[in-house]
Amino acid sequence: MPINRRVARFNKTVANHFVGPVLSRMPGFGKVHHRGRKSGREFVTPVKLFRRGEDIVITLPYGPGSDWVKNVLAAGGCEITTRGRRIELVNPTVFTDDGRTRMPMMTRRILARVDATQFLSLTPASAAVTVKR
Fold first, then answer.
1. Which residues, at least 6 apart from 24, have a Cβ–Cβ distance to it below 8 Å?
2. pTM for the full model?
3. Cβ-based neighbours of 34, under 8 Å, separated by 6 or more
């Protein structure tokens, strides 16, 4: 079972405002820029991420029921800022790790402790463009 929703609410209202600006500049972390599917407001959420081929994979320690995940899925994508670069991402897909997903070993160990096995995979918009002939 993913991390308790009470922890998620605390992080959303308190912790993210302090650690988000610092973490998003570190390797393996970033900020998701998304728009509320109901309110239309812009939001920023700090996340843990890694690359898997061309795709960016974001860990979901609170599960796919988080508002930001629902917003990204409803919009069909988002933008992230990681290591000072802003990247447009499309084709969001939630998947469950079957133990074969390539990810950093430390990330796998930490997520295993909290039983977080779901992830959000997105493709950079520049890589998703196909040339028509």
1. 30, 31, 46, 81, 82
2. 0.78
3. 42, 43, 44, 45, 68, 71, 72, 75, 78
Spans of all domains in the chain = 5-104
Domain 5-104: CATH superfamily, name plus number: Electron Transport, Fmn-binding Protein; Chain A (2.30.110.10)
Q: Tell me the CA end-to-end span of the chain in Å, nearest whole number.
A: 47
Report CA 125 to chain centroid distance, whole Å: 16
Nearest alpha carbon to residue 30 among 71, 98, 88, 110: 88
SS3 call for 74: helix
Q: Tens digits of per-residue pLDDT, 37-46?
A: 999 999 999 8
For the ranges 33-37, 84-88, 120-124, the lowest mean pLDDT is seen at 84-88
Residue 100's SS3 state is coil
